[in-house]
Automatic annotation (TrEMBL):
InterPro entries: AB_hydrolase_3, AB_hydrolase_fold, Carboxylest/Gibb_receptor. Belongs to the 'GDXG' lipolytic enzyme family. It comes from Heracleum sosnowskyi. GO terms for molecular function: hydrolase activity. Gene3D superfamilies: alpha/beta hydrolase (3.40.50.1820). Residues 79-295 form the Alpha/beta hydrolase fold-3 domain. Pfam families: Abhydrolase_3. It comes from the Eukaryota. This is CXE carboxylesterase.
């Protein structure tokens, strides 16, 4: 066997997500089709998109979504969306997620910010958490600032869409699967008073959230080398009800699907939230007869439409 053959031996194999080879290369089973932003041209949803670099080192980017503006004086809510994919696949720039976020933005009339975080295992966790936090802080910067006397004034950010059109009294988080896990982490950071944030979270939508299991899986050990126990507060927040009480947002919507293998963790999260010291409103919805993230794989299906209406209603209440 040559050294080249040795280099390409599979060290870790986790279908349908990725393989890790002996030479450190990562091969993904899912090929994301990335699409460019539309810039000044509306897409099929009537939404225009534009990409921004939030951090140069490490590079963290986001895709912004602006719905049709009929009244320039009206400020719109902001929705920060965090994609799923087991922390290891997916992109905020993919055709898959661009289509979904565009639909949410068009239906709910919000400004969308879709996070494009670094993927594991090349960038082990907590990189994706930190990248998403940087995007949240970047958005928040547009809605908060301090004068010399400590009084709040107009925001310090410079993005024109956020500066001209965003209502920073209505900031929402949404994520699916691993993205829901990351959204929860952001809400915990805000509730813990971490520096750099001057806005509050109005609500959070967790769709088919991934919140671990009763053991740390081999795949998670590769993605998150620092994890050591099943009740790690990021991996399994329901095992830490005292921390769940630190979530600071007005309301939380937990969505699960009947045939999703992750359903029980979503249920436990909702139940844990209700039992904790969380002071906001908690809502729960289950879609019968459907599997994990069905609404993404078949975005025009009847039940995907029903779930969309529930999410839009939550954002617009």
């Amino acid at each position: 066997m040559t050294s080249s053959d040795t280099d390409t031996q599979i060290v870790h194999n986790f279908p349908p997500f990725f393989q890790v080879l002996q030479n450190g290369a990562v091969k993904r089973f899912f090929d994301d089709k990335l699409i460019p932003p539309t810039n000044d041209t509306p897409n099929s949803h009537g939404v225009i998109t534009r990409d921004v670099v939030v951090s140069a080192q490490p590079k963290v980017s986001a895709r912004l979504f602006l719905p049709e503006i009929s009244d320039p004086t009206r400020k719109l809510p902001v929705l920060i969306y965090i994609h799923g994919g087991a922390f290891s696949i997916g992109s905020g720039f993919s055709e898959f997620y661009t289509s979904y976020v565009s639909s949410v933005v068009a239906n709910s009339n919000v400004i969308g910010v879709s996070v494009d975080y670094r993927l594991a295992p090349e960038n082990p966790l907590p990189a994706c958490y930190d990248d998403s936090w940087e995007v949240f802080k970047w958005v928040a910067l547009h809605g908060s600032g301090q004068t010399g006397s400590g009084q709040t004034e107009s925001g310090l950010g410079s993005d024109p869409w956020l500066t001209n059109h965003a209502d920073f009294t209505r900031v929402f988080l949404e994520g699916d699967s691993a993205g829901a896990n990351i959204a929860h982490d952001i809400a915990i950071r805000v509730g813990s008073g971490q520096e750099g944030v001057g806005v509050k979270i109005s609500g959070m939508v967790l769709v088919h959230p991934y919140f671990g299991s009763d053991e740390v899986t081999p795949m998670m050990k590769v993605l998150y080398p620092g994890i050591s126990r099943f009740d790690d507060p990021r991996y399994n927040p329901a095992a830490n009800p005292c921390l769940m009480g630190k979530i600071k947002c007005g309301k939380v919507l937990v969505c699960v699907a009947e045939k999703d293998g992750l359903k029980d963790r979503g249920v436990k999260y909702y139940e844990g939230l209700k039992k904790s010291d969380y002071e906001g409103e908690a809502e729960f919805v289950e879609t019968r007869g459907e599997a994990h993230v069905f609404h993404l794989f078949n975005q025009t299906s009847e039940k995907a439409g029903e779930l969309m209406k529930i999410i839009v209603s939550f954002l617009n209440k």
